[in-house]
Amino acid sequence: xxxxxxxxxxxxxxxxxxxxxxxxxxxxxxxxxxxxxxxxxxxxxxxxxxxxxxxxxxxxxxxxxxxxxxxxxxxxxxxxxxxxxxxxxxxxxxxxxxxxxxxxxxxxxxxxxxxxxxxxxxxxxxxxxxxxxxxxxxxxxxxxxxxxxxxxxxxxxxxxxxxxxxxxxxxxxxxxxxxxxxxxxxxxxxxxxxxxxxxxxxxxxxxxxxxxxxxxxxxxxxxxxxxxxxxxxxxxxxxxxxxxxxxxxxxxxxxxxxxxxxxxx
Length: 265
Fold this sequence. Notes:
Blueprint: E1 9-14, E2 20-26, E3 34-38, E4 44-45, E5 47-52, E6 55-65, E7 69-77, E8 88-90, E9 93-95, E10 99-103, E11 109-114, E12 120-121, E13 137-144, E14 148-155, E15 161-168, E16 174-180, E17 200-205, E18 208-211, E19 231-232, E20 236-240, E21 246-249, E22 255-256
Antiparallel strand pairs: 1-7, 2-6, 3-4, 3-7, 5-6, 8-9, 9-10, 10-11, 11-12, 13-14, 14-15, 15-16, 17-18, 17-20, 19-22, 20-21
């Protein structure tokens, strides 16, 4: 039902209930540079080559994809417009119109400044966000283009691991990918030390969205016949209160510990 064109076309579908602007990685194997165009509007879209799980993809920023709808993009040969710079890099710090982020060699984000809220620092003391533990390593700018920018940190301690942190043009989300590259038998955690004292933590627990506090404190946890050391993280955890907050979206870390919680406290 989508008319073909003279050049390769892809439809970009949004299954969610709100309009979205985000990137898509297209399985395009044609020549580069190329020009990607929104077929309906004729607008040229930012695009770059990106390596995803070892395969080269054409990463395109598609804006205002309607709810439960799609846009059709066409890939045409030859270079197109030059899009203005959207990020500035200094060493291991990247700055956009929204954020200023610093990545350390151990994969921790030691500073995350929200520029839209008066320069509020979201990363806390004790290692910062995404802190596996003390360690040394290297940080390189792995990819940078008109769509996204990716820092890569390779560290040897406390476990050999690779961390990638990506920021995307016109998208508020910060993508963090961690890969532990050796086997281990003891317990390790990715710590997210935030700088929002007194923040409430809401999370998913057996299908419910609940406040991680005891019921006498206005939360949803029973003060008896329960254990409190490991809570389920599932897909999302919301850290915040009446002011700004931090939402962590999660793919494969299933449990979390709230602060210094113990089985009985």
